[in-house]
Amino acid sequence: MWWLKPLAPAGFARTSSHGLLRRTIAGSNCSSSSSSSSSTSVFTAAAPFSTTSSDHKGATRYPPRPKPPPDHEFTEVYLKGSGPGGQKINKTNSAVQLKHIPTGIVVKCQDTRSREQNRKLAREHLAEKIDDLLNGDQSRSAVVARLKARKKSSAAKKSRRKHRDSAEEKQQGEHDEDDEAPLGSGEADEAAQHDDTPRRIVKVQEIRV
After folding, report:
1. β partners of residue 99
2. Could you tell me the residue ranges of all domains in the chain?
3. For residue 78, what are the β-bridge partners?
4. CA-based Rg of the chain, rounded to a whole angstrom?
C-alpha cells in the first residue's frame, strides 16, 4: 500500500534498496563554466551502517593476502590422501600437490575431503610460500606474526599492571585497617609511659576519729 511506504526527504530520491539517497541540485550557477545554461550536481550518500572491519576501532589491520600465481607457472597433481580422515581420503585422489616452476616450491594440501576446496587452499599456500621467498621479513606472514606478538605482549603488560594495581590497593587497605585498630593493654601502658602531658596529683589523707 503506497501510504505505508517511507517517503524520502524533500530534494532526495531513493535509488536502491540499500538506503542510498541521491540529491539533485539544479541552477545556473552550479558549474564553473562560462555558459549560462543550467547544470546539475548529483550527490550520493551511502547508508550510515557498515560491517567492514575498518569501522571497528582498535581492530588490527593485516596486509592483504598475496594472489596466487597464474596457472601456467605451476603444475598440479592429484594424489591419494594419507593419515586419519576415513576411507574416502585414502581411496580418492582428493589431495592436491602444486609445484611452482620458476622457484621449485612444492606444496601439498589435504585439509578437506573436497578436491575443489583443497585446490583453492593449495593455491593460497603456494602464494604465501612465494611471498615469503621473495619478500622475506616484509612478507605478509612475517608482518602478521609481528603484529600478533606485539598484541600478545601488550595484553600481557596490561594484565600484569592490573594485578599490580590490585595488590597495591589490597596492601593499602590492610595498612588502613591496622591504623584504625584499637590499642591493646600493653600498647596502652607503653603509650602512657611516653606521654609527657603534665598531670595533677591529688593526695587523700585518711582521718580516724
Report:
1. 75, 106
2. 7-45, 71-138
3. 96
4. 40
The number of residues in the chain equals: 209
d(CA 124, CA 120): 6
Angle between helices 115-135 and 140-180 (to 10 degrees): 80
Name the pTM for this structure.
Answer: 0.47
pLDDT (tens digit per residue) in 1-34: 445 545 555 554 444 444 444 444 344 444 344 4
Looking at the DSSP bridge assignments, the partners of residue 95 are 79
**HSE on the CB side for 86, CA within 13 Å?**
8
Closest CA to 121 of 98, 89, 140: 98
Q: What is the DSSP string of 17-56?
A: TT--EEEEEEETTSSSSS--S-EEEEEEE--S----GGGS
CATH architecture for the domain at 71-138: 2-Layer Sandwich (3.30)
| Mean pLDDT to the nearest integer, 183-189 | 55
Q: What end-to-end distance do the CA atoms of the chain give, in Å?
A: 121
Query: For residue 41, what are the contacts with CB-CB under 8 A and spacing of at least 6?
Result: 24, 25, 30
